[in-house]
Specification:
This protein is an all-alpha fold. About 80% of the residues lie in helices and about 0% in strands.
Length: about 150
């Protein structure tokens, strides 16, 4: 998968500095959402009919979290001296990754339960794996577009 983004990474090597931050943030966001959602399901506080309310709540929280983390990532990128284009890339990517993670994590336990799989057993590892892989693709796709547009 990384081979597809080899040119982008070679153009701006500094992009690699932020991979652990972005992937960790996405995985942690997703795991937190699934943990609280599975708990609410186990206590009978949330049922399948609550999916849209859960999505609305988690996406709203995700927007606030993403904005905070994007600001911190921007500052961290600038303190590392990697330039405005990388700082912008990291900030945009973290917003997309956190929102994607919140969306997946909000729906995954409902889908698992629908198929008769205990969400408590599968949700954490599955969401982390899904978000790690897709988060990397999101980041490098954003980088490919922005680095090309910004002349990196």
């Amino acid at each position: 998968m990384l081979r597809h983004f080899e040119d982008t990474l070679a153009t701006v090597v500094a992009l690699t500095f932020f991979i652990p931050l972005l992937i960790g943030t996405g995985g942690n966001t997703g795991t937190q959402v699934t943990t609280t959602l599975v708990r609410a399901m186990a206590l009978g506080e949330v049922r399948g009919r609550h999916l849209w309310a859960v999505l609305r709540k988690e996406m709203t929280t995700g927007v606030m979290l993403a904005a905070c983390i994007a600001g911190l990532a921007w500052l961290r990128a600038l303190t590392l001296g990697v330039g405005q284009d990388v700082a912008l890339t990291v900030s945009v990517a973290v917003v997309l990754i956190v929102l994607w993670s919140a969306l997946l994590a909000s729906t995954l336990p409902f889908v698992l339960r629908r198929f008769g799989v205990d969400p408590a057993v599968v949700s954490g590892p599955l969401i982390t794996t899904l978000v790690d892989g897709t988060g990397l693709v999101i980041y490098l796709s954003v980088a490919t577009v922005l680095v090309t547009q910004l002349g990196g």
